[in-house]
Automatic annotation (TrEMBL):
Cellular compartments per GO CC: nucleus
Statement: the UniProt record of this protein carries the keyword Amino-acid biosynthesis: no
Family label: Belongs to the protein kinase superfamily. CAMK Ser/Thr protein kinase family. DAP kinase subfamily.
Ranges of biased composition (kind: Basic and acidic residues): 274-292
Record's keyword terms, sorted: ATP-binding, Kinase, Nucleotide-binding, Phosphoprotein, Serine/threonine-protein kinase, Transferase
Domain Protein kinase: 1-255
Annotated GO MF terms: ATP binding; protein serine/threonine kinase activity
EC number: 2.7.11.1
Protein name: non-specific serine/threonine protein kinase
PROSITE patterns in alphabetical order: PROTEIN_KINASE_DOM, PROTEIN_KINASE_ST
Reaction catalysed by this enzyme: L-seryl-[protein] + ATP = O-phospho-L-seryl-[protein] + ADP + H(+); L-threonyl-[protein] + ATP = O-phospho-L-threonyl-[protein] + ADP + H(+)
Protein's UniProt keywords contain Cytoplasm: no
Source organism superkingdom: Eukaryota
Amino acid sequence: LPRGKFAVVRRCVEVATGIEFAAKFLRKRRKGQDCRADVTHEMAILEAARSCPHIIDLHDAFETPTEIILVLEYAVGGEIFNQCVAEGEDAFTEVDVRRLMRQILEGVAFLHRNDVVHLDLKPQNILLTSASPLGDIKIVDFGLSRRVNSAEELREIMGTPEYVAPEVLNYEPISKATDMWSVGVLAYVMLTGESPFLGEDKQETFLNVSQLNVSYEPEVFEGVSVQAVAFIQQLLVKAPHRRATAEHCLRHPWLSARGVLPGWMENLAGGAGRAEEPERAQEQRGRGRDLARAAASWDPALPPRPTSPSAAGECSVLVPPFPLGQCRQADVEFAKKATDAVAATNCFQAEEAYAIIPEMQKKLVC
């Protein structure tokens, strides 16, 4: 399973049940600094998000002298990156992408309702419950996630170059709209198999992002509907306040459409030879133009529909009072409060989990 700079993930089996899980081993000290509160923050978010089906489930946790191990739901299908770069029958269809994108947005909307931003949305952090048949989405890796509020500005340089928003590169305030830029890049990659801003090196990639150098040429989006392209264009907007929110995106015509949509190339074909086309083809082209106008007129600035009280206040997310991605001396008092709060639930008793560390090998086979 994947290995990161400060973490490694191993597949494991719970002996008592025979159920497979993914064990994420996180170092408590990174670059000589105590980062236990960072891990506590990630645990708190995962615990608070248990009610969201599109965010990976935290099953258990353990602590050793050097590491904290998060026992997570095992997504058998792996990263969606594999299908993004696949060709032929192994690649995503637009119908696939539409369903999966709706699930991604449902997960992101859940986080944003709770004032949490992920800040590292990319194909490697979107898993599938099954590869064949195509399963459902699970969002993972909340190591860079932060809490945002209107009273305090958040500025940090973090994320993955290809998916990072312009405001991050310019050291401008980060907001929920920062995640929405990444969702737009995700949609582009899933539909085309190409990374819109990737350059020869990081500097060129950053330049492409900051200057919004992105191609919407017909050959790039061959066979992709105009609604899908319009969906991406509503997100890859330099000004954060002009980007669609997750809730608005869920009401976009592309995600509410049914059946097979006309292709991008087909809708934009020139008029030469149109008089000789069959009547059915002419009707389809006319429908394509209507869809294009409808998608183009969709206004992300429209006020969101009211959410139910339960949806608006489903959970309270705990976060450390210092920037993640920059390991700092842990706030012991905060870490204790966060651990105590999380341990209050029946499904995740942090102190009990830490107390049985010596018995970890008896419970798990890695």
